[in-house]
Amino acid sequence: MGSTLLSACGGGNLDTDQPATPRLASVSNFRDVAGAAAGYPTVDGKQMRRGAFYRANALTLSTADAATLNKLGIASVYDLRTPGEIARTADVLPSGAISETLDVLGVNDFVTPTFDTAAAAVAFMEGEARAYVTGAAQRVGYGELLTRLANGAGAQLFHSSAGKDRAGWVAALLLSIANVPLDVIMQDYLLSNVYLAQSIQARTATLQAQDGDTVAAIESPLFNVQENYLQAGFDQVQASYGTMASYLTQGLGLSQATIDMLHARLVV
């Protein structure tokens, strides 16, 4: 994917002509947290380190994609889904990887409610993003994940169901810890729409065929990411904690030593 796609996502200052990771047809939202080329830039003139942390949707790996993923040396896989989601779609793990489950929502299953309007669906997604900041179970879950990522050995992968919301929030936190500019963090978040484009189109077509165009239009905000979703989370961080640093330490319970370890792993 090239810079033209990034321009379509709201910015064109990231070079993605040399992808950091292989594209996986069976796990379409798999990518390196650090981005592409030489890694995302930081505000203090450094660059992110590729090959440390990966993000993805559910690991429904084909045989060919499993062989490709095995070459990356992933040591740990953190599954952020609920027990119900895991029961419906089990992971296919990379060779040698240890699987750890961390239900960051703290519920037995995630069932999307029905909506009467697209605006209501958008409001739901924004509410979910804010709950990542305010919810007790979410704060415990995300804090535990970041602690494990800091202390884990080798390359590590975390994933949710589509790899765009829960995993997208984790990626945004890691990029924030790495001191990546906010506009780059937002562009990276929006890239889920590019990586998941085929899946989004397929889900929309299926819904149109089953329930009609109106229902498909109402539910379409659930299938993608929008800038206002991530912004809702960031706005809640400011409202609840004042700064990202306070959210990490007070909200997620991270020690400064843990944050420093993450930064050291994230930045060259």
Automatic annotation (TrEMBL):
<dbReference type="Pfam" id="PF13350">
    <property type="entry name" value="Y_phosphatase3"/>
</dbReference>
<dbReference type="InterPro" id="IPR026893">
    <property type="entry name" value="Tyr/Ser_Pase_IphP-type"/>
</dbReference>
<protein>
    <submittedName>
        <fullName>Protein-tyrosine phosphatase</fullName>
        <ecNumber>3.1.3.48</ecNumber>
    </submittedName>
</protein>
<keyword id="KW-0378">Hydrolase</keyword>
<dbReference type="InterPro" id="IPR029021">
    <property type="entry name" value="Prot-tyrosine_phosphatase-like"/>
</dbReference>
<feature type="region of interest" description="Disordered">
    <location>
        <begin position="1"/>
        <end position="20"/>
    </location>
</feature>
<dbReference type="GO" id="GO:0004725">
    <property type="term" value="F:protein tyrosine phosphatase activity"/>
</dbReference>
